[in-house]
Design goal:
The structure is a single chain. The protein has 420 residues and is an alpha/beta fold. It folds into two domains: 166 residues, ATPase, nucleotide binding domain (Nucleotidyltransferase, domain 5); 188 residues, 2-Layer Sandwich (Nucleotidyltransferase, domain 5), CATH 3.30.420. It is 38% helix and 19% strand. The longest helix is centred in the C-terminal third of the chain and has 25 residues.
Length: 420
């Protein structure tokens, strides 16, 4: 029987009920779509949420697209080249793969990371009206929302009975003080939704949960600066567990310079390029999101590992790294001012968790805030990298957006986790 028939319609529902009846824990599928990638994971709801499979489709719409999967039953990692033109063709490959997995019959729900949520302050079950709202706000985030909507619709078409949940990256910052939300432009635009939203909220929510688990008192009553440093990079200022400010703004291109995003930029740059180069809004959007940041300054690579390797011999690579660290240091200083000091600083994300040289450089000259790095602990990416007795606790925490999505889905749909 073709794989698609084994998991669709009434047959899928019967199979799903049979598996659950046999006391096999239900599964939650998480989907994390980026502008050129789709990450997915399966979580078993046993004694705790346990990841049983991970996968990734990378470089969608570009050369060298790869589909990579790995499950918990064995260490082997399967990676193969695939041909995709866009998210639509990538979704079909993903759906065919998942449908062929016997454990997929026990998936109870699907959770999606949705980058932009505007008015949503918590995870929401996806309905026709919510989908319509996502369509309406798609122009606010043309790099992410169209692909995410396409994913949701594709899963809905193939598995109409499976509930889907939207987990919004903007929700963590939804209740930021007005002083941090409002853009200094004519007030009439605020009614059209132009404001600072902030992103990376799923990562920040997870990091705050981890701080509570670790017993860090600043998570509940204190001043925390979170630095999510990856291909996309941002920082957040958190007081007493609530976001009061963040570096990203109306779009994820704002704030700190990133792998290919420019970060904060004088708006006069667009005016100048429009007048002198005939640059259109679409071309400018592409430039500031995909051709700038570390890639633009170095003219070499958007990957910090490449730039660090060439730092000693290529002045452009050195400048890109120095600018990234300098800007991150400035954001930490500005958020310390907004918070009235800092008790805990957290590094997360691919760069924040793995690049000791970057952390060391960022924290240089921040001793006046009480930030002192233990170089030996930092070099081995230890969970705690501040000096004993330092006024500020500095941590390295592995962030987990997929686990945060799974927790949100289980909580919203009341999927019982055994032992909880």
């Amino acid at each position: 029987m073709p794989p698609s028939k084994t998991v669709s319609g009434k047959g899928a529902a019967r199979a799903r009920r049979a598996v659950i009846k046999d006391n096999q824990p239900p599964l939650i599928l998480t989907v994390n779509a980026g502008s050129s990638s789709i990450k997915f994971a399966l979580f078993e709801t046993g004694a705790e949420l346990r990841r049983t499979m991970i996968g990734n489709i990378d470089r969608i719409g570009r050369r060298g697209t790869r589909f990579t999967t790995q499950n918990s039953q064995g260490p082997q990692r399967i990676s193969r080249s695939i041909n995709t033109q866009d998210h639509g063709s990538a979704v079909e490959i993903l759906l065919d793969f998942l449908s062929a997995q016997k454990e997929f019959t026990n998936v109870r729900a699907i959770g999606h990371r949705v980058v932009h949520g505007m008015s949503y302050s918590k995870p929401e079950r996806i309905t026709a009206s919510l989908l319509a709202e996502l369509h309406r706000i798609a122009p606010y985030d043309p790099d992410h929302l169209p692909g995410e909507i396409q994913l949701i619709r594709s899963f809905r078409k193939k598995h109409p009975k499976l509930p889907q949940v939207a987990c919004f990256d903007t929700a963590f910052h939804h209740n930021m003080p007005m002083i941090a939300q409002v853009l200094p432009i004519p007030r009439r635009y605020a009614a059209k939704g132009l404001r600072r939203y902030g992103f990376h909220g799923l990562s920040y929510a997870f990091l705050m949960e981890e701080l509570r688990r670790l017993g860090d008192v600043a998570a509940e009553k204190g001043r925390v600066i979170l630095a999510h440093l990856g291909n996309g990079a941002s920082l957040a200022a958190v007081r007493d567990g609530k976001s009061i400010d963040t570096s990203m703004g109306f779009t994820p291109a704002a704030g700190l310079m990133m792998s290919t995003r420019c970060g904060d930029l004088d708006p006069g740059v667009f005016s100048y390029l429009s007048r002198t180069q005939g640059m259109t809004g679409g071309q400018f959007q592409n430039m500031v999101n995909h051709e700038s940041g570390l890639l633009g300054v170095s003219a070499t690579s958007s990957d910090v590992r490449d730039l660090l390797a060439k730092r000693a011999t290529d002045k452009r690579c050195a400048l890109a790294i120095d600018m990234f660290c300098y800007q991150a240091r400035k954001w930490i200083g500005s958020f310390a001012a907004a918070l009235g000091g800092v008790d805990t600083l957290v590094f997360a994300g691919g760069i924040g968790e793995n690049a000791a040289a970057i952390r060391q450089s960022i924290c240089r000259d921040l001793g006046f805030l009480g930030i002192e790095i233990n170089s030996a602990a930092n070099a081995r990416n230890a969970p705690l990298i501040s000096m004993p007795g330092a006024a500020v606790t500095v941590r390295v925490i592995h962030t987990d957006e997929e686990l945060m999505i799974a927790r949100s889905v289980a909580g919203l749909l009341k999927i019982k986790i055994k032992g909880k």
